Amino acid sequence: MKNKLCRTGSLLLFLFSTCLFAQKHHFNVGIDGGYTSSILHADLSNLVDSKYTTRPGFGVNLSGEYMVWKTFFVSTGIGLQQKNYQFERTGSRTGWYTRYTNNFLNIPLTVGAYMLNNPYETTGVWLKVEGGMYTDYWLSMKRKGRYPVFGELQENGTFNYTEVQDTYDFDKNENQLNRWMYGLTGKAQVGYSFKKFNVYGSYSYQHGLSDINKDNEDKNQKATIRSYMISVGASYKFN
To answer: Domain Outer membrane protein beta-barrel, which positions (predicted)?
Structure first.
């Protein structure tokens, strides 16, 4: 845990230190927010009439970008993102579900390039792409579900349902969930450059590589989160 906190601190220190030299180098700081959609990718072959589906959420990101050579840059930042999904039963079990609302602290580290124009040198429309790694810290999880009451069988062969909701206690962590996770990320961004400001729209994808279960020894039962985010934002350029 200490090593992971140190790595997080190092990324934030990088962002802060580049800000100190922003007046001499091409650098910008941006903020964006928007819609997220996520799904838990897991093997449910041992559960009949079951599936995971996507659920919407929101996210907000603070980012810093530093030009290293011509149109190439490195970028990092910090964000608060929801990665929500739903487990539901299908077929004869339709109506039985659990909705998960998850808040994550997200820290990306990417490299990229401007493919159309350079906003540090010209005004107008620009396009950039970037890719790299990210680290997630699981802040909180809320669950809301609808489940059959098996002791209340109706005459038509169905059961009554009850609704339950709770907030997962990460201090006890009874399910041994992995709070620190990582994966691959990619982003495409299109914007318009003014003299000192950019406005832009962004699409990003995050492909989880780490299992959400801390002590899962069966790699065939690995469960990972995959998500994307569509957002709009603005940034300030230091030239």
So the answer is: 21-212
